[in-house]
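Workshop exercise sheet. Pairs work together: one partner reads the sequence aloud, the other fills in the structure field after running the prediction. Swap roles for the next sheet.
Pair: D.N. / O.F.
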Amino acid sequence: MTRLRSGEDLTDALATLCDVLGSLPGCVSAESARNLDEPDLWLLMARWSDVGSYRRALSSYDVRVAMAPLMGVVIDEPSAYESAGTDGDAWNVNLPR
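Structure field:
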């Protein structure tokens, strides 16, 4: 999970990144959202079948290209989380800052 803050509309850039992430092996889902109370706050969440798939995705050229336009608005905070639910082998992780 990665949060981003921008007054600009990030819909297209986030949709592109979600499409790229979703095409990679091990990606269970990738989606983005905009905060209802703070419209300049955005969320990118990707769910991976395992941490290895997530880490391999980070080295993908296509991911780096799709992420480039968003790097300036990513909030600097921890962004990788392990699932605490019953699906213990799944990871909720996202791109590093």
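Discussion prompt: The longest strand covers residues 27-34. What would you look at next?
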